[in-house]
Amino acid sequence: MQLTEIPAPDFDLAKTLDSGQVFHWQKIDSGFVGTIGNQAVHVEQRGEMLRATVASASSRCLEKHGHDAHAMVARYFALDHPLAQICASLPNDPAINAARDFCRGLRIIRQPKWECLATFICSSMKQVAHIRQISRALRERFGRTRRIDNYVVQTFPSARRIAETTEKALRECGLGYRAKNLLATARRVATGDVDLERFAALSDVDLRAKLCELPGVGAKVANCVMLFAYERLRAFPIDVWIERVLREKYFPRARKLNAARVHAFTQEYFGEHGGYAQQYLFHHARMSKSKSKIQRKRKSPQGLPAHLSRQGG
DNA sequence: CTCCAGGGATGAT
DNA sequence: ATCATCCATGGA
């Protein structure tokens, strides 16, 4: 058990953990508990300081990976990212400026590769709350229990562990049709057919292509994994939220968006840290929508004005 | 109750 | 190459 204090300027822990890039951290009194790899972590932010408690199964486990608790936590939360420079490198336009201001201190963290891949395979056509629920179900059923301070957390199950389950068992975790994809991909990773660590040496284009060979992985999931687990800060995942933003803010006159054209635009316009731009636009759009669902324009049936189309009342 | 979600695979144009 | 459809689930 190690308790460390880590300087963390330009960092907002809560915003980072609630931005839809990672799904398992649990909010507790003035902090969060979760896991980094196989180690349980209790972390809380006090101003520009991070206070973290790390527990591992064996004390050698930390040294074995060449990390003490301090370095491991700092690396996970990407405290070494030059956030001021990154923000300054983003385009100067109204949408980005508003999102950047709203997301101050939000960092793109470095997640374990398999955990990130598996979680995003489960993310298709699911709301963030659902993904959190699936992640928790997989951990509770197949993960390993760890205790940290007076809390209990579960590690994310390895590919090998998932590979030896059944589609039925995965469906019982709420995965629906995604169960088959997760199982198939887990098997390919578990057998060594694909080596996610080795993928780190590939170029962006080759990495994306290799990830897209896996069942349940298309361009969007591949880009999420590249951004959140492979440190590819150019990767620009386009989901329904981002597509909405792009359509409204950057292609207001387009009839239909061509995927290849949009991809080319995002790479060139948002630049080498486009993934940060994407995450800021995503989080800002998602947060500002959930608050202002009042007075949202709704199309009324048969073209009737909204106030005349209500049934009953 | 209905709506919709950090999509992907498949088959028809 | 684009487009429509299906796939399961549960929070809002």
SSE layout and pairings?
Layout lengths: L1 E6 L5 H5 L8 E3 L2 E6 L2 E8 L2 E7 L3 H6 L4 H8 L6 H7 L4 H9 L10 H9 L6 H15 L2 E4 L2 E4 L4 H5 L3 H5 L6 H13 L13 H9 L6 H11 L10 H11 L8 H12 L3 H18 L22
The protein binds a DNA duplex (13 and 12 nucleotides) through helix 7, helix 10, helix 12, helix 13 and helix 15.
Structure description:
The chain is built from 15 helices and 7 strands. Helix content is 46%, strand content 12%. It is globular and about 50 Å long. It has helices at residues 13-17, 59-64, 69-76, 83-89, 94-102, 113-121, 128-142, 159-163, 167-171, 178-190, 204-212, 219-229, 240-250, 259-270, 274-291, and strands at 2-7, 26-28, 31-36, 39-46, 49-55, 145-148, 151-154.
Q: State the shape.
A: globular
Measured between the Cα atoms of the first and last residue, the distance is: 61 Å
Radius of gyration from CA coordinates = 21 Å
| Major sheet description | 5 strands, antiparallel
Order of helices and strands: EHEEEEHHHHHHEEHHHHHHHH
State the helical fraction.
40-55%
How many strands in all? 7
Low-confidence stretches: 293-313
Mean pLDDT: 91
Give a short summary of the structure.
With 313 residues, the chain is an alpha+beta fold. Helices cover 46% and strands 12% of the residues. A hairpin with a 2-residue loop joins β6 and β7.
Keywords:
313 residues, alpha+beta, 5-stranded antiparallel β-sheet, two-stranded antiparallel ribbon, 7 strands, globular, DNA-binding
